Amino acid sequence: MAYEWDSSLETGHEKIDNQHKQLIAALNNIVSASAEGKGKEEIFKTVEFLTGYTVMHFSTEEKLQVQYDYPDYLVHKRYHDEFKITVGELTGRLVREGPTEEMIGIVTNAIGEWLLNHIKGDDFRMAAFVKAKGGN
Question: What is residue 36's DSSP assignment?
Answer without folding.
Answer: T
